[in-house]
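Ops channel
N.P.: pipeline sanity check, posting one input/output pair.
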């Protein structure tokens, strides 16, 4: 079965971090913490999150 990058139904805001964690095989909490650090330290994480929210289809 082929993996597909989709937004997770187990979501806190939009399911982007959960979907990314499922796709990469990582823990969702770790992905959320890394994403938060990207938002706070670099500022580019927020823009990337918004783009992925629009582009990624929701899990069926």
């Amino acid at each position: 079965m082929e993996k597909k990058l989709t937004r997770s139904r187990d979501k806190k805001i939009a399911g982007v971090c959960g979907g990314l964690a499922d796709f990469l095989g990582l823990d969702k909490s770790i992905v959320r913490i890394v994403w938060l650090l990207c938002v706070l330290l670099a500022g580019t994480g927020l823009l990337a999150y918004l783009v992925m929210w629009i582009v990624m289809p929701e899990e069926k």
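N.P.: looks fine end to end. The first helix runs from residue 16 to 24.
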